Amino acid sequence: MKFADRLQNFGEEIFASLNVKKLELEKQGRKIYNLSIGTPDFPVPEHIRKALTESAQDPESWKYSLRDLPELLDAVCAYYKKRFQVDLHPEQIMSCYGTQEGTGHLALALLNPGDLILLPDPCYPVFQAGAFLAQASPWYYPMVKENGFLPRVSDIPEEIAKKAKLMIVSLPANPVGAVAREDTYQEIVAWAKKYDVFIVHDNAYSDIIFDGNEGKSFLAVPGAMEIGAEFFSLSKSFNVTGARISFLIGRKDVVDAVRLLRSQIDFGMFIPIQKAAIAALTGPTENVKKQCMEYQERRDALCGGARAIGWEIPDAKGSMFVWAPIPASYSSSMKFCLDLLEKAGVLCTPGSSFGPHGEGYVRFALVLPPDKIREALNAVKQSGILE
Description:
Blueprint: H1 14-27, E1 33-34, H2 46-56, H3 70-84, E2 93-96, H4 98-110, E3 116-121, H5 125-133, E4 137-142, H6 158-163, E5 164-170, H7 184-195, E6 198-203, H8 224-227, E7 228-233, H9 235-238, E8 246-250, H10 252-263, H11 271-282, H12 286-308, E9 321-325, H13 333-344, E10 346-347, E11 349-350, E12 361-365, H14 370-383
Parallel strand pairs: 1-10, 3-4, 3-5, 5-6, 6-7
Antiparallel strand pairs: 2-8, 7-8, 9-12, 11-12
């Protein structure tokens, strides 16, 4: 059988190949510090788990859901008003099985083959995958050190801007850890209106921002609702990554288009998961703020600890990731990752897997407590890999 040509766009998933090497070393009795995948190690709050398990006891919960529960949509509206000062109508909201699934469906709903989509480089790989699924033409705008790892729409050539149909923005940014300045979103909105480009913002990390700064919604910017939508995820704020709870929020016609496509593919989010989402959105959030401070302690342990042993890693501004330049003696981030794993037992992700501008960097996920991070850095120091 000859399979679909689109599969040629997708190679072996980088985490899978690194995990094979990790397992080999663990079989040899080696201690591995896994800082590669951004899966929170904090517990799921009890009230969220309780809401799911109680709903699961109801036989009615096991039928097709067919729609988002009205109380779930109301909970999102109330949360956005309280958390971001954004007024929403339930028709501007739809659930997704995680932003990863949502991004793929959005691209299929909005883009025709050959349409131009603007993607950050480096970026989370699913943004590129969505473009490939829709057979769209990606154009990559750089997220580099010289720009503070922020998008600079003024640098996008006018001939590209005029052709572009969609632009994906992700702030706080995975993998680079950048956080939008006050004027960043304003510039993007003005540019999008000028060139009639629809903006899709990935807002997964608005609750993990450091040094006293406040996470925001793109939709809070005046005019953003006219030209944009954003994905809002509960995964990182409430540690429910496996439940895949995300929402597409924004301009009604766009949400309607994605909802129509999705109705042909599945029957809606499992009711107990919807109940868990309602509990998260309407319950206490003090732990979310406490957790952010714990992420900052991990950031400080990693970045400050690295600088103390001669590895100049700048402080991440937000997200649960640290973007680290590789030592000058290396030209390949993948080679450095493999050597770091082999020599020090520290597992991270090569920057090259996030796009061409990711080469020269590696990404660390802040998924170990500070004492373990300090142990990992000591192993790096003892390995001599930085010399």
